[in-house]
Fold this protein.
Amino acid sequence: MAAAHPRAMPSGTKRGTNPNLGLSTMDILETLEKRREAARVGGGEKRIEAQHKRGKLTARERIGLLLDKGSFEEFDMFVEHRATEFGMEKNKIPGDGVVTGWGTVNGRTVFVFAKDFTVFGGSLSEAHAQKITKIQDMAMKARAPIVGLFDAGGARIQEGVAALGGYGDVFKRNVVASGVIPQISVIMGPCAGGDVYSPAMTDFIFMVRDTSYMFVTGPDVVKTVTNEVVTSEELGGASVHTTKSAVADGAFDNDVACLLQMRRLIDFLPANNRDGVPEWPSFDDIEREEPSLDTLIPDNPNKPYDIKELILKTVDEGDFFEIADAFAKNIVTGFGRIAGRTVGFVANQPMVLAGVLDADASRKAARFVRFCDAFEIPIVTFVDVPGFLPGTSQEYGGLIKHGAKLLFAYSQASVPLVTIITRKAFGGAYDVMASKHIGGDINYAWPTAQIAVMGAKGAVEIIFRQDAGDKDKIAARTKEYEDRFLSPFVAAERGYIDEVIKPHSTRRRIARALAMLRGKSVEMPARKHDNLPL
């Protein structure tokens, strides 16, 4: 008897059907599409409508705006929770409150998870957490950025410790991925309880004004424990976290504006800590000169000017993405490009507190410098700093430790460091702002630079205290001090300044310096990790 052909159908089975289900292939495909449609609707049309009435988009709408059109590949669409307590076994919705997958932003791979507020309020369950950790693991394997879109009420109370365990699994992966792949958190609704700590360990947090808020404990708990009456916005809204706590790095007016800006930010960031910065076509001539910079510095040394004008006239096509623009405005941090390649900028802002370094400015800049160093992003520093801010509030607030963070960050950085002193560089702040002494590779100064222990008036009052009553002598001594020390040439004589350059050539000088430093390599001593002055 002849053996059956290996592709022979079982007896009684018609071609084009599934022997296990007795359904045609078309029926199976139709069933699949119905299940997909049910999953895409999330919590249902009424909840989607309620989401829109709050001025918020749904999870899938947000992903559609963040990623290139048609590039999203969703995973775990049919995952459901496994809880049986409190009647939860009768209430299951495909996806379980989070949408996960990957796609591209301008052709570059990005992983994403988006909390779905229409499904159980976006609350985190064990299965929900497993979806997030899976995408975190995939992002690490692919060495690609991950973006989390948060709109949720915290842990799913019905699951108890299983949900808490899920949070822990997510947190651990945030730490493992830190400094390996960029992690961006976007708060687009409530973010409370355990949900806040995952964003807190990522590289950047952005919020949406009026519709998002973050806090560990909500207004009701605060009222119960402290008898303090406070609204969600007052407790943890975007206005609080971008100006006071510095938890968030920026805020935008609505979901659409926020997500479009996230696309722009991702364009600046490397895929991981090994690939190097992205390089985009630029139509801006590296040799471009800016004659207006020759008159940027006012004749009066106490008159402010906007350092952002210098940044915008230096970067490619005036494209600058500022980080934490509403916090510690006396220092400016953000990303631009030189010759099509991403550069991190740190700059004292004379328009605010004369550009002085205080505790807030120091920790803001330190965190930014450490991010750039972790991801091999060169740093350009524009210096105009009269020193550290004096006063009891600063000293009591730990100015010493916070100032040390910035000093530590620059000293540890192994990426190319290019520094330009535009005007004042006084006292210890001169050292801290990427000076040659702590690792600056190329240090330029404008002819208007003043590099000294302190300003002329204060210095003369200390050095020539015996002449304090003689105005003519003090005036003469002040002029003498200014001529000798308030210039870039004393530092240049010692090699602390590599060159005194003309302001209009700043862009060309930076571009050439960065090109020369592109292969920079620094050997650091072996250690488990440093002990940053936290």
Remarks:
- The longest helix spans residues 25-41.
- Confidence is low (pLDDT under 50) at residues 1-17.
- The domain at 291-449+487-519 is CATH 3.90.226.10 (2-enoyl-CoA Hydratase; Chain A, domain 1).
